[in-house]
Amino acid sequence: MVLTASSARSAWPVPLPLEAPFGAALPTSFKAAALAPTADTILITGATGFLGGASAVAAMQGGLASQLLFLVRARTVEEGLERIVKSLARFEPPPSLLEQLSAGQIVLGDLADVASFADDPRLNRVTQVLNCAAVASFGDHPGIWPVNVVGTVAFARRMAQVPRLKRFVHIGTAMACGPGKTSPVQECGELDDEAEHLVLYTASKAAAERQLQAIAGLPLVVARPSIVVGHSELGCKPSTSIFWVFRMAHDLGRFLCDLDEAVDVIPVDYCAKALMLLLFKPDIVSNLYHISAGARSATFRDIELAMAKARGIPSQASQFRKMTEQDIPALIPQFKARLGISNRRLVMRAMKLYGGFAMLNYHFDNRRLIDEGLEPPPPFPSYIKQCIDSTEGLPLLEQMMDDFK
Hints:
Elements: E1 16-17, H1 32-35, E2 42-45, H2 50-61, E3 68-72, H3 77-89, H4 95-98, E4 106-108, E5 128-131, H5 144-159, E6 167-171, H6 200-213, E7 220-225, E8 227-228, H7 243-252, E9 254-255, E10 262-263, E11 265-266, H8 268-280, E12 283-284, E13 288-291, E14 298-299, H9 300-311, E15 321-322, H10 332-339, H11 344-359, H12 367-371, H13 384-390, H14 396-400
Parallel strand pairs: 2-3, 2-5, 3-4, 5-6, 6-7, 7-13, 8-11, 9-15
Antiparallel strand pairs: 1-12, 10-14
Helix pairs in contact: 2-8, 5-6, 9-13
């Protein structure tokens, strides 16, 4: 479904200008403060999560700490501030940066209950929204649809009523396209509502995106990240999400893909930099962007070589075997011996799930962001050592918990 709306500022996908007293050019190494007027107020949801936290730190490093509001689940603003500071500390910003935050920047609320915070008067002065909040689980979490669809749409409708709102950047997922596409997957605003998604999470993201497009007056920009793994400098210190899949395949010497197939992976700090661009650049050419590796997507062979080098062991490529789902039960005895995991149901489910995504063999066209002035992302193999070093000694089962909560 393509958006049709009476408001010119929410048209899809025509250029979306921002009324701002600065030029549209964006250097690749920019300060967010140079793009955001001092009167702007930026509301970030999901800052206690991986991508939201990285984005909040990026904004603060750009000089915008005092202009941020955070939607946080907590009983008191003091508790909310504590949660935010703890989350952002994972990205190791200078302590002096975190000390700039105050309880007055906390909006108590939950997307599962938008009515509980909809009357907060601070929302009426918001100029930009970065909506990162979601139940980002590949399990069957009961909150996926109530938060990712119902609550997200209700929140967007509330923010569409704010006269000063210039841009509402919503985090979707590149996998919202569903199966059956051909790489490179193009940046298309239309999503197949009949697509059979591999998990409820991606289905919820697709449904939310379709409904957000229909909200009149919402200056919507959808950002669809591909697979976000680690941090280009900190590795998996902020989050072990998804990296364990590559470690598991390497330990087993088997996966559902061929070594010469590619996977589209980006680090979270690159994704955060892209979101700062989409949030603050005065003129952007579209309302929909992939944040992806694109042509820099790495093959599993390159990933295996980088992992072997980082672990100080010989490459296992010559012994690597591509398998089918039917082969997985035969590997059960190796789960404990090679992976240290006795929960064979969890590992089987994880291998089928992530193998299913990998077998799509997708990479996502990212030319729009590159054309906006963002440099290409670092290739995944270039920071695999940081991911290996930061997970050394951490049991694989613990690494999996970020994705199966």
